Amino acid sequence: MNPTRICFIRHGETDWNVDRRIQGQIDIPLNDTGRSQALAMAFNAAHHSFADIYSSDLMRAQETAKLLAEREGLEVKPLPQLRERHYGIFEGLIKDELHKHPDPYAKYQARDLEYDFENGETIPALAARVEAAVDFMVSHHSGEMIAAVTHAGVLDILYRRATGRPLNTPRDFIIPNCALNWFMFDNHGPGGKGWHLEAWDDHHHLAHVLKDSVE
Predict the structure, then answer these.
(1) Could you tell me the domains of the chain?
(2) Rounded to an integer, what distance in angstroms lies between the CA atom of residue 76 and that of residue 136?
(3) In the annotation, is 84 catalytic?
(4) Which of 13, 63, 84, 91 is catalytic?
């Protein structure tokens, strides 16, 4: 059976990205730069032929996916499992303000696997959600090539899962807005599931991107 290839794309820039404010699942639209990034991404990806285009159901991802879908003559398929991690009490805060909450901040910095920001989501819960999203797309597109627009937290999990990095180690890779990240999924791996990273951070189509991702 041929593998399924998925091009995962982080949404375009928002004003909250610029402010270094944690968005989580708060529904924030793209800013003008984000729309330009999404358009540049759509033109760059247009030479690929995608069988379908999926997106997180949050506005910033949907807006980004729509521009790619229009180039492909497709409709965006919303998939809530592709949402950003729920950051609970940290959502809406500027990153420089997080230290005002010493204990939660320490757990955030340490990537504490049991911490859910009081009313948010743990890292393992996010990872399980991401795996369910991948399983859904692969089961519906065996052997095909599709695209999925999502968020930094989801891409973090995808990268770690495909490269064998633990969930609780510091992030040592960048996740720019509107870069193309290619993964291949087949049945050759632990537990019968193979996740393979083909290419990461293709952003040559973008003149300016965020290098220090704020979720």
Answers:
(1) 4-31+50-202 (3.40.50.1240)
(2) 16
(3) yes
(4) 84
